[in-house]
Design brief:
about 350 residues; mainly alpha; 13 helices; disordered C terminus
Length: about 350
């Protein structure tokens, strides 16, 4: 009858000794974490930085022992919270907004685009096929032009326009007209890009039709100018922003097709899981597409209107295309981001 109280007394004594022996380490670890949160690691001395992992391991050891000897729940909760906080500060990925943005442009976006190279080539080919179809149909029957080019985008650029009118629209026009047209074209192509991506979930079929339609529209546009001997000038007018804009639409379509393929052929996964897994990488590419469309909008609204030399327009468009291809497919950033 006297052994139980004696054992209880011994347990209480061991708990007290446990706290006396180890509480100083817990307090020191907590104080260092407080200083780290307030000042950052650069304000800690080298000795203090070396103490952090040692005190962290000591806290983990205390937590393990505390669980074994069934200490009070308040102390267990305190040690668990302290251990979790220490793990986060020592090993957690604590990147700020600037670091996340830098990682997106240096690592994530180019990698997502490279992963879509097959779909990108397929959508490029489909766009070219659409262009050939649109060109051929309008060349054989100009009434097809209205089926491909909406009136708000044509703005007088149609089969009834004379060579002089078409040339004036390439090299003249007021700033207000050009700026308004730039906004309309940017909105239109942004909608096409977003739809190409969003409709990929429907097994990719709407995306294929949209890309084909957009190719027909470009082909019809080019044919009207070619029929008046202005194809080269029209190509320069289009290329200064079109290399960026069409590239963005192709990438959006490629991302949509990737999701559509995952939904159509999920493999061992459910269709929802396949779409979610594929969608993360595709969505990264799509965020970059928005950036490309913004760049195209700037080129459309500013650069193209202030540069009226066809050769210079081709040069800018070619440099933009070369820059995008180099950024996505040639440059492989290696930095601290690779290690998280």
């Amino acid at each position: 009858m006297t052994r139980a109280p004696s054992m209880q007394t011994a347990t209480i004594q061991s708990v007290a000794n446990f706290r006396v022996e180890r509480e100083a380490d817990w307090a020191a670890f907590e104080a260092l974490l407080d200083r780290l949160d307030k000042r950052g690691p650069k304000r800690l001395s080298e000795e203090e930085l070396l103490q952090l992992p040692r005190l962290y391991r000591a806290t983990l050891s205390s937590l393990s022992l505390a669980r074994a000897i069934s200490l009070d729940q308040a102390l267990l909760a305190h040690l668990e919270a302290l251990s979790l906080r220490g793990y986060y500060r020592l090993y957690g990925n604590r990147t700020g907004l600037g670091s996340r943005v830098a990682r997106f442009f240096l690592i994530d976006w180019p990698a997502a685009v490279r992963a879509l190279w097959r779909e990108t080539l397929a959508m490029l080919l489909l766009l070219v096929i659409g262009g050939v179809i649109g060109w051929g149909l309008v060349a054989s029957d100009p009434s097809w032009y209205g089926a491909f080019v909406p009136p708000e985008l044509a703005q007088g650029r149609d089969p009834s326009a004379s060579a002089g009118q078409l040339r004036e629209m390439l090299f003249g026009g007021g700033d207000g007209f050009l700026t308004g047209f730039a906004i309309q074209l940017f909105v239109h192509n942004s909608q096409i890009a977003i739809l190409c991506f969003a409709l990929g979930f429907a097994f990719g079929l709407p995306t294929i039709l949209l890309v084909l339609y957009h190719g027909c529209m470009v082909g019809a546009f080019l044919q009207i100018y070619a029929s008046h001997g202005l194809l080269v000038d029209m190509g320069g007018w289009l290329s200064i922003h079109g290399t960026t804009e069409l590239f963005a639409i192709i990438l959006a379509a490629a991302a949509g097709i990737r999701i559509g393929a995952a939904v159509a052929f999920p493999g061992d996964r459910s269709r929802i899981d396949a779409a979610a897994e594929t969608g993360r990488s595709a969505a990264t590419a799509m965020v970059g597409v928005v950036v490309m469309l913004l760049v195209a909008g700037i080129l459309e609204g500013v650069g193209r209107q202030s540069i009226n030399i066809t050769g210079a327009r081709y040069a800018i468009g070619g440099l933009m295309l070369l820059g995008w291809c180099s950024y996505f497919y040639l440059l492989r950033a290696r930095s601290r981001f690779d290690h998280g």
